[in-house]
Write a structure and sequence with these properties.
alpha/beta, Rossmann fold, seven-stranded parallel sheet, 15% strand, globular, binds nicotinamide-adenine-dinucleotide
C-alpha cells in the first residue's frame, strides 16, 4: 500500500510559525508544511542544541530560547516580521523526560514549566494577538501528549505541563473562536524521533509496545505532521478545542489486551 504523503498545495499562500522546528515532530511538521506550499518561520534553540537545517526562499530560521522571556519576546517579533502575519502556529517545542515526583526539585519543576507551559503560552498569545489585529482568522496547533491525560513513572513535571497544555488549548479555543482562530492539540503517543535515540528499537521496549499499542509499533513524526496539517488548513472549519491523538491506539486499549 502506498502511504507516502501526496502534497498538493493544501497550505499554498499560508504563513506558518513552527516552534521546536529542529526537533523530530516540529521538523516533520516544517517539512510537510513546506511541501504543501506554506512559507515557514522555523523557531528553535540556536547553537548546537537546536541547529535548524533548512534554508531557502520559503523558510526563515529564528533562534529562540523559550525559557527566557526577553529573548522569546524579541524572537517572536522577528518571526512575525519575516513573512507577515502568520495564518498558522504549531507550538511543538518542549523539554521531554522528567523526574519522579519525589526527586523533582524546584529547579526541575521551574525549567519545565518555563519552556513547556509559559513558553507555549507566550508564543500562542503573541501570535494570536497578531492574528486578531489582522482580522483574518487563523489556526493554532499545540502539541500535548498522551501524557496530557495519562501519567508514567519518572516524568512528574513533564506530564504536569502536558496536562496544562490540554487545558490551555481549550481556553484559547474558547477565547479565540469569535476571532475566527481555531485552536486544537495533537496528542502524540510513542513517536520514534532522533532525540529518543534507539529507545523504541530496544528489544524489551519493542516487545512492550507490541502489547501496549494496538498497532503494535511506535509512530513516526510524519504521522503527527499529517494530523497537524488537517488542523492547520482552511478545510478544518468546525474542529476547535479538540484533540487528535496520534498514538496507534495506545490510549484506546487496556494494557496487555494484545497478548
Ligand atoms: N516523541 C514522542 O514520543 C512524543 C510523545 C508525546 C509528545 N511529544 C511532544 O512532541 C513535541 C516534540 O517532541 P519531539 O519528540 O519532536 O522532541 P524533540 O526533542 O526532538 O523536539 C523538541 C524541540 O524543542 C526544542 N526546545 C527545547 N527547549 C527549548 C527552548 N527553551 N526554546 C526553544 N526550543 C526548545 C528542542 O531544541 C527540540 O528541537 C514536544 O512537545 C513533546 O512533548 C513527543
Amino acid at each position: 500500500m502506498d502511504t507516502e504523503p501526496k502534497p498538493n498545495g493544501r497550505l499554498a499562500g499560508k504563513v506558518a510559525i513552527v516552534t521546536g522546528a529542529a526537533g523530530g515532530i516540529g521538523g516533520a511538521v516544517t517539512e510537510r508544511f513546506l511541501q504543501e506550499g506554506a512559507q515557514v518561520v522555523a523557531m528553535d534553540l540556536g547553537g548546537p542544541l537546536g541547529g535548524i537545517a533548512w534554508d531557502g526562499p520559503q523558510i526563515v530560521s529564528v533562534s529562540v530560547d523559550l525559557a527566557d522571556r526577553v529573548n522569546t519576546d524579541a524572537a517572536l517579533e522577528t518571526a512575525l516580521a519575516a513573512f507577515g502575519t502568520p495564518d498558522i502556529l504549531v507550538a511543538a517545542a518542549a523539554l521531554k523526560g522528567g523526574k519522579s515526583f519525589l526527586d523533582c526539585s524546584d529547579a526541575d519543576w521551574d525549567s519545565y514549566v518555563a519552556v513547556n507551559l509559559t513558553g507555549t503560552f507566550r508564543a500562542c498569545q503573541r501570535v494570536a494577538k497578531a492574528m486578531v489585529a489582522a482580522a483574518k482568522g487563523g489556526r493554532i496547533v499545540t502539541v500535548g501528549s498522551v501524557n496530557s491525560y495519562m501519567s508514567e513513572p519518572n516524568a512528574a513535571q513533564y506530564v504536569a505541563t502536558k496536562g496544562g497544555i490540554a487545558m490551555l488549548t481549550r481556553a484559547m479555543a474558547v477565547d479565540l473562536a469569535r476571532h475566527g482562530i481555531l485552536v486544537n492539540m495533537i496528542a502524540p503517543g510513542p513517536i520514534d524521533v532522533p532525540s529518543n535515540g534507539d529507545m523504541y528499537r530496544e528489544p524489551k521496549l519493542a516487545a512492550s509496545l507490541a502489547d501496549e499499542v494496538a498497532l503494535g509499533r511506535p509512530g513516526l513524526p510524519e504521522d503527527c505532521a499529517t494530523a497537524a496539517l488537517f488542523l492547520a488548513e482552511d478545510e478544518n472549519r468546525y474542529t476547535t478545542g479538540s484533540t487528535i491523538t496520534v498514538d496507534g491506539g495506545l490510549s484506546a486499549m487496556i494494557f496487555g489486551a494484545m497478548r
